[in-house]
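Lab notebook page, bench 4
Experiment: in silico fold of construct C2
Operator: M.H.
Input chain length: 205 residues
Purpose: comparison with the prior construct
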Amino acid sequence: MNKNVVVVDLDGTLYSINTFHHYLKFIFIKSISTIRFWLSVRLIMLFIRRILGFVSHAEMKYRVLSWTANYNIDHQKFASSIKKYHNYLHNLETNTFQHKILATAAPNCYASIIATNHGFNHCVATTYTQEDFASFVENSKEAKKENVTQLLKSLNLNEINTLITDHIDDLPLMKISKEVILINPSSELIKELNEHNIKFKSELH
């Protein structure tokens, strides 16, 4: 039985920022204020290696999550600190969806809080479960599509009515969505979607 389902991306869509970059600043400041200098130094070295291209974005995310897994971080406070970057999404706010899914590559530790704060009843995000990096999978691209699809199956659903995103990384999800809404699409993104014959609507902010 089909029900109304909307899937919404986080960074650049529901929020105008890259939330993970703000999260890095948040935990770095916390590491200094709580005199966790070992963490501060590790973060600085990781940032440098990332800038120099020695570390991928996925590995940087993995390292940060593994280092802070047992670190007392107020994720609710972090979520509140970036709430000012929330985008009012017309199609999300003016329609009634039975299932609202926040699907993001951002860490679940704060993405799930953001989802709850904005009335989503499901969150599909990047999780860390003490695995090694070789087993770590960022909730992005094909992995994101598979995780959303698995959630839909668990809910006895079989389609996405509306997908709201800003990024080509969500192309796998676009291909299985009845309606695609792009937030502030660039000319490059529009060209790429036209090449893939993806029909879409635009919403500017």
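Observations: The mean pLDDT is 94. The first strand starts at residue 5 and ends at 8.
Next step: discuss at group meeting.
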